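Is zinc ion placement plausible here? Inputs below.
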Amino acid sequence: MSYIVAHETAAPFRRVGGSSDSASAIGLRAQQPGSVKAFTGLRLIDGTDRAAIANATVVVRDGRIVAAGSGVAVPTGAQSIALAGKTVIPGLINAHGHVNVPDRDLKTYAAYGVTTVFSLGGTDEASWMGLRDAQATPSLARARMFLAGPVLAPNTPAEARDQVAKNQALKVDVIKIRVDDNLATTPKMKPDIYRAVIDEAHKRGMRVAVHVFYLEDAKGALDAGADFIAHSVRDQAVSPAFVSLLKSRGVCLCPTLMREVSTFVYESTPDFFSDPFFLKHADMQQVNTLKQPAQQEAMRKSPAAQRYKVALDVASRNLKTLVDSGVMIAMGTDTGGLLGAEGARLDGEGRHDAAAGSRRGHPRCGALHEARSGPRDARARQVGRLRRPRRRSARRYREHEKDQRRVYRGKSGGQIADWIIE
Ligand SMILES: [Zn+2]
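Reply from A.M.:
I modeled the complex. Tokens:
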């Protein structure tokens, strides 16, 4: 397995000239040569559920995809890059990850095809806002990150409101709280506290991601207006009431199955420890530690590890229920902790989704941006899958379908070209 990230990001939206409907007249003629790249002869997976397109061309202008499909002509003056035998997919969005060492971790995420990561909380994040703000550049050579900042841990409703205000002053992208007792070992945030957090965040126009373990808390958080459920329900089967609440509120759930796996997978030496691609990006000091017999023995004897093994079964069954019910699911690895080996968990996450009988999480990642950002946030429309035109935006997009011939046109700029070549 090897990936190259075709990572050409984030020039500001600009209008593309031209108004012809034909696939060959894609409005690029007026552009300077060199600002346009055409990737040709590739297999295109557009991030929807539709079949891959053989022998496709993707045209990128100033870092944005302006046309993609099998009937797309290479514009005059474009730099042409032949990708025969390669597959291009949308960059993956890790909806719940963590970043510890930004430069190292964001490059690792990118190597695994993750071009956007929501780092859901950590004290160091307060000092990374500048890095986040500097990432809208066509030469970005890492995944872009969005930040929750310090995870709130207030003891009173007044403190809750104060901490929300402080994180807003830091310019975080989302508020993160934990409602959990860590297998009955720590006090759990009370409902009046998390209600105050959510209420204050909403008053300030911010969204709240909630760490949960128990169904009761997930339901309570949703009732209070939570915008994102950052883990699986892991204590019991999800209830029909919970499912319909997720659906009616349009809230996205992030299963983070690999978080549970990571609590017990190092009981022995896992297969991926001999995967060359994994080893290329892994922190070998951590890998060697996790190979030590004493370390593995301790994990085998850990009651928490055994408890989370059971939790993974519950979470996997719940994922199937949620997917079958049409709840929005976002891929998330919760990586950045134990091993810092983002790709290992990412890879496994996909497999576990499949094992749960669900669709793989990856093609649905774009849903997170839609779920969390809402239509007012321009970012929501700039990354992820190439979408079938909606009725409201049909004037801006044209699509032609005939024998896998699909052409997407973005008159107002197109999707950011975070595409991955396998
Ligand atoms: Zn986390």
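Short version: The two ends are 7 Å apart (CA to CA).
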